[in-house]
């Protein structure tokens, strides 16, 4: 697959580097590298849209000076590059998340094997760690669970291993759905995977005991009303993928649509919140 490499210079760099990374992921960029000046990012040539990038930059131009340049890059064996740098992750001394080439470790209650390919969700990022923390602390046994924006499927897989059933996973990238299916098989769990976005929920007759959504703030703000409508009485919504400064905005949206805040957690600049239906 041919890729476009884009180099972004930001002034100031923080917190705009994390914000821009999240925004670029929505325009087709799949891989990112932090640089002293900002970000390097890579997008499949067929998905690259310079106009969409310029539109993203214009949104933040009043608060951050952003410049960029881009061009084609030679094909890269991304799996080989990933294997050079990927390290296993241990969360709360209970959950090990590792690659197929890492050694199993029976000391941990959950030993999850993930090969991410191009998908998000290796548990290295704070937002994924926050969501895993919820899944390890809550009783999900026997609960119908939905993972929105499933990426590698790591959250759905952990939920299934912890007793959730049935488990459904949705992502708007077809390769993420395929990746989730492959990783579910690696971990010997059953997950129904659907290619689509929040509109796919309209075609699902069932409601859920729990919905997970580790997505950026803009998408959450738009989609929380739909999530609220797909929760059972006493159902729970767990969200992450946004900065702590944005938490109040999402709280207001959730409250407006019948969700009450139960608890929150932070890691660095990132937040995660647990909501519950009032009934």
Give the tags:
7-stranded mixed sheet; Alpha-Beta Plaits
Task: Walk me through the structure.
With 279 residues, this protein is of the alpha/beta class. The protein folds into two domains: 3-76, Alpha-Beta Plaits; 123-277, 3-Layer(aba) Sandwich (Rossmann fold), CATH 3.40.50.150. The protein has eight helices and 14 strands. It has helices spanning 16-25, 50-60, 78-85, 126-137, 154-161, 174-186, 217-229, 247-256; strands at residues 3-11, 31-34, 38-44, 65-73, 89-91, 95-98, 110-113, 145-148, 167-171, 192-195, 208-214, 231-243, 259-267, 270-277. The strands form three sheets. The chain has a seven-stranded mixed β-sheet with strand order 10-9-8-11-12-14-13, with helices on both faces. Strands 2-3-1-4 form a four-stranded antiparallel β-sheet, with helices on one face. α7 packs parallel to α8 (247-256). The longest helix has 13 residues, at 174-186. It is globular. The termini are far apart. The mean pLDDT is 90.
């Amino acid at each position: 697959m041919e890729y476009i490499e884009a180099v972004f210079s930001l002034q100031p760099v923080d917190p705009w580097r994390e914000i821009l990374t999240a925004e670029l992921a929505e325009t087709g960029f799949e891989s990112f590298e932090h640089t002293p000046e900002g970000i390097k990012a890579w997008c499949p040539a067929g998905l690259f849209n310079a106009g969409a990038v310029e539109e993203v930059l214009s949104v933040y131009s009043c608060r951050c000076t952003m410049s960029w340049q881009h061009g084609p890059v030679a094909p890269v064996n991304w799996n080989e590059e990933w294997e050079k740098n990927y390290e296993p992750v241990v969360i709360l001394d209970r959950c090990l998340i590792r690659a197929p080439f890492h050694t199993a470790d029976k000391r941990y209650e959950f030993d999850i094997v993930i090969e991410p390919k191009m998908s998000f969700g290796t548990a290295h990022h704070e937002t994924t760690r926050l969501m895993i923390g919820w899944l390890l602390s809550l009783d999900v046994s026997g609960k119908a669970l939905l993972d929105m924006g499933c990426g590698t499927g790591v959250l759905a897989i952990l939920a299934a291993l912890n007793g959730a059933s049935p488990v459904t996973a949705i992502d708007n990238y077809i390769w993420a759905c395929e990746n989730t299916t492959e990783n579910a098989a690696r971990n010997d769990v059953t997950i129904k995977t659907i290619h689509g976005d929040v509109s796919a929920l309209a075609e699902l007759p069932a409601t859920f005991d729990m919905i997970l959504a580790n997505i950026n703030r803009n998408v959450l703000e738009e989609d929380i009303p739909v999530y609220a409508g797909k929760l059972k009485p006493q159902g729970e919504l767990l969200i992450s993928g946004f900065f702590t400064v944005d938490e109040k905005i999402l709280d207001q949206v959730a409250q407006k649509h019948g969700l009450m805040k139960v608890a929150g957690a932070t890691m660095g600049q990132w937040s995660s919140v647990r909501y519950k239906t009032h009934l």
